[in-house]
Amino acid sequence: MVDRQKRIGKLISGSLLSGLEAKLSEDVNVEDISVGRLVVVDGKENKFFCLLKDVSLQATNEDILLNPPSDDFAKQVHAGINTFYKLSIQPMLVMPQNPMEDDRPRPSTTVPPHFSNVCEATEKDVSLIFGKPDKNSPEIGSPIFMDVPVCLNLEKFCKRSNAIFGKSGSGKSVLTRMVLGYLIKSDLAVNLIFDMHGEYGWSATNESTGIDDPSLRQLLGSKVAIFTVDGDSPLYRRVRPDYDVQIPYSAIEIADLELAAGELGLTQAGIETMYRMSDKWGEEKWLSRFLEMDTDDFPAVVEDLKVNEQALGKLHRCLIRLKKLPFIRKEVADDTVERIMGEIQAGRHIVFQFGRYNSMLAYILVANILTRRLHKLYIDKTDFARAECIEGPKPLIITIEEAHKFLDPQVARQTTFGTIAREMRKYNMVLLLIDQRPSGIDDEVLSQVGTRIVGELGDERDINAVLTGLPNQGTLKILINNLEPRQFLLTGFALPMPVVIDAKNYSSFCDEVSIGSGIILDAVKQKKVFDDLNAKVYGDDQIVFD
Amino acid sequence: MTDRIGEVIQVYTTRFLAQSDNLLNPPYFGSFVRAESQGMSIYGLVFNVYETSIDPNRRAMAFGIEREELLKQQPQIAEFLKVEFEAAVIGFNDAGHIRAYLPPFPPRIHSFVYPCSKQEVLDLTEDLEFIRSINSLPGLPVEELVAASIRLAYGERGSDRNFLVRAGQEIAQLLKDEYEKARSIIRRISDGR
Question: In chain A, which residue's Cα lies nearest the Cα of B186?
């Protein structure tokens, strides 16, 4: 372990509020300095852990800017005297120079003295802040330009709703898989993952290599149950899902359909009509009854409900799309929510997949219906447990992709997801929001997010949204702007200070969490060898084994 | 000493005037010289060299003949001419240590002046303090003088680039508020690379 501090500058000015400023040492190449780095300011009695947030060009003399030095020699001579580089750093944590055993880094409440040395953080510093990896605080990457683990405190992570943001291609899915993998491995909470794009089940395609990487089920075996609405999907040729989900019409509430209004093309008049039908025909029966009708039956309905015939026709055309989702049926054999609850109580984690029905409509409907019922069940069980002074249901983390569809400012106040996000862990339920458009999420929900993991984001509005409710937004904004693919800014409740990391290598994650990884990975490798051989021998002819 | 180049004829605390021993090899502008006086070496930097008539009331006159030819034809003319040079005091030798600041007293009149040895030039220019001394003396062609002396010291150091950069930085630092002046000196020493 190399642990010699490299001095990069001296503190010259600044404040706790706006950040500190240091002059870069002449012997340090400015091109080696990059924003997002962790630096340490050596005060008299304390070490200040800071984030490098900006580097700027400075001149002591206006004249030199008007008549810049022309040759390299002159540039070299003026460097450090008439021209210099200023580092802007934000103090975050402070720790005594000679810490006692129980000293932990605490938030910085003052600044170091003038001309204190500013050094690159050493591996020792980083492990002082982020701790050493273990089961409940696994390594999820290393600070940029360093090779030291940054650990995510999962115990804290489970206590709030969290979010992983990043545009597509930022490595968000892979990181999410790692976080979920570690969560499952730690057993600190049960996970219900609404896996819209089929990435968290058996395997997921690696975008850069095109080869399938093992995903949660493959890595963690029977700890993970796969629920699907599309049991016939080719996805499951190799591995059968644990449970084929069917949802009865009676489980669909008008609020669920309202949430999918955009996808269904519902109008306000249509929604009014639905309420009329529900009042008249019963909450659980109206939908199946309405969908069984055809246009000939409409005049009677118009008569009965006093609604506009055209609106009725339009509503019918909208809702008939539900019939294209074969997992929504009139009668079902089994109650999915009870099943999920059973699995949760047994401590199994659930990946809920959509197979070929990965349309937004199916996703929104299913996620919303199930979560609403689960939430009710959880409230009942938690309240019951409180009254009886017994242990409540296991903490549950619900992972939702495309979170903005559920937490849009217009609907967030009414949906179950909005409620869960706001009430935090009162009922042992929290959310893990996965999204590439955080600007579409309600501010109130965003400000309740405990830990944020932010990857590359293109849109200014998204960046601003991600920072809602955080201190030092200016600094964090610069850091987000400078992220590259597979780099993430981690900030919030589960981290002692914000940090930019290079995400951990997926294969080392697999080696770490996988149960009997050797056997499974060998099997995968063997299958690949076998497939290659087949391709060689038989070319493109498909061979199907029963 | 055989390498004597002149004799001090007028002194001030900060500068001295010497008459050159011969007309053929006057000291260079910007060169380092040493006056030996009262057992002490006092170092100066030549900032002005001039040739004049020995009689202040009689100016030399034009003959319209090349100097070499003229001196061959009328060798007596050489007897009426003298070369004098002025040096700014930049330091002294105190019991074997070179001090780059003003000595307690100037050299005495009629002290002899010698060129500095290579080692002396190296020692005198090591901490570059002499640049500050020159800059603070009034009436000197500072820019030219600093550039010339640094080029010379650079040559004595076997064209050590680090020295040149160090000197340039000293100049940039000293003339922080006079960027144009610093720039012109730096350009001059930069040419010497």
Answer: A74
User: Which residue of B154, B177, B183 to mutate against A (max A Cβ within 10 Å)?
Assistant: B183
Chain B CB within 8 Å of residue A65 CB: no
Indicate the pLDDT class of residue A539, thresholds 50, 70 and 90: low
Type of residue found at A359 = S
Asked if residue B93 belongs to a domain, the reply is: yes
- Let me know if residue B1 belongs to a domain: no
What is the DSSP code (8-state) at residue A470?
-
Q: What is the ipTM of this complex?
A: 0.79
CA distance A13 to chain B (A): 21
Domain containing B167: what range? 6-191
B-chain residue closest to A81, CA distance: B173
| Residue B160 touches partner A, C-beta closer than 8 Å | no
Q: Per the structure block, which two tokens stand in for A384? A: 């019951």
Looking at the partner chain, which of A61, A73, A76 has a beta carbon nearest the beta carbon of B176? A61
Q: How many CB atoms lie within 10 A of CB A412?
A: 21
Residue B90 lies in a domain: yes
On whether residue B136 sits in a domain, the answer given is yes
Its pTM stands at 0.75
* pLDDT greater than 50 at residue A62: yes
B59 in reach of chain A (CB within 8 A): no
Is B65 part of the contact surface with chain A (CB cutoff 8 Å)?
no
- Taking the C-alpha atoms of residue A98 and residue A405, their distance in angstroms, rounded to an integer, is 50
Interstrand relation of A396-401 and A190-195 (parallel, antiparallel or unpaired): parallel
Q: How far apart are CA B189 and CA B193, in angstroms?
A: 7
Name the residue among A63, A67, A73 with its Cβ closest to that of B168: A73
Per-residue model confidence as pLDDT tens digits over A115-162: 999 999 888 888 888 888 888 888 889 988 888 889 888 888 888 889
Q: Is the pLDDT of residue B82 over 50?
A: yes
- In this complex, the residue of A67, A74, A80 whose CB is nearest that of residue B190 is A74
Sign of CA dihedral A257, A261, A264, A268: positive
* Cα nearest neighbour of A77 on chain B: B169
Contact A43, A96 (CB under 8 A): no
- H-run or E-run covering B173: helix B161-174
Taking CA atoms, A107 is separated from A95, A125, A292, A430, A493, in Å, by 9, 15, 63, 26, 13
3-state secondary structure string across B3-38 = CCCEEEEEECCCEEEEEECCCCCCCCCCCEEEEEEC
Residue A395: strand, helix, or coil: coil
Q: What's A415's DSSP letter?
A: S
* Structural domain total, chain B: 1
- Residue A489: the pLDDT is 92
